[in-house]
Amino acid sequence: MVDAEVLFTAHRDGLFRYLCRIVGQEDARELTQEVFLRVARTEVPQIDDGGRRAWLFRIARNLALNHVRDDRRKGTKVDAAHDGSAPPTQALAAVLREALSSLNPVDRDVFLMREVSGLSYDEIAFACQLTVDAVRSRLHRGRQQLRTALAGSDGYRDGSWR
Amino acid sequence: MAMDEAPRKNPTGENAYLVVAALADGEGVDPDALKSALDDPAVREYLVDLIALRQAVGQCDDLSTVRWRERTSFQARVGWLSAAAAVVISLTAGYVAGQRTVQAAPAPIVETVVHLDGAGVAPKPTRVISLRPGVNWTEKAGGQ
Lengths: 162, 144
Description:
The complex is a heterodimer of chains A (162) and B (144).
Chain A: H1 4-23, H2 25-41, H3 49-74, H4 88-102, H5 105-115, H6 121-128, H7 132-150
Helix pairs in contact in A: 1-2, 1-3, 2-3, 3-6, 4-7, 5-6, 5-7, 6-7
Chain B: H1 14-24, H2 31-38, H3 41-104
Helix pairs in contact in B: 1-2, 1-3
């Protein structure tokens, strides 16, 4: 039997990173805790590790969607502005943030789960309630858009941010 | 993902991109399909872009995670400092309050009254010396 604490230790960072990209750091911290509060209140499904991770991400995604919806209703904006004098890494981060926010929300979730949290196609398919082929296709579409958006950005592909 | 679910052999168009993406993502890939896909320079360029994009995302991600951890440890430090400060303030306040209380109200004078009736009577003598006229009290021998 896996309890919420074990899941929290194993998946907190991945969930936080994913949520960070969607709702910002402050709210991501709260939502990450909220995910595990919900987990503690329900029975953890008796499935393998990958399945549990996908299940956690599905909860996190639903919470994030509700949060974004509430924010939109309240008229608050999640994203931080980009400081023009920021160093290349921060400038690239700002371009990336902007490009991510311009993606279709589902494409963005698929991309983030893959690139930020390292989920497999199967796990993403479960978390986003899509087929594996749809995941593959959305991931490709999102990457193509980001590739176009980032082309020519300082630090992208020239390795200067390293 | 099983190998038979991987994008088809001899991929064309978007499929070629999906094959290299699957490779980059650690999913199952058909070797023949991969070989065909990598014949296309545009697909090779896409693979390089995938890696660059991943590194860029990873780098930006490290920034935010580091900030979160710094903040978390800062919060923890602030928490401990607050607790320590609260203890010191409490002890100091208690000491000062105690000092002021002592100064404002000095200890009361305790008056002890001894009643000499009954219990205060001297005990009976064990030896009585009578003073009689004409007896020489000058001690000469043995105190007789």
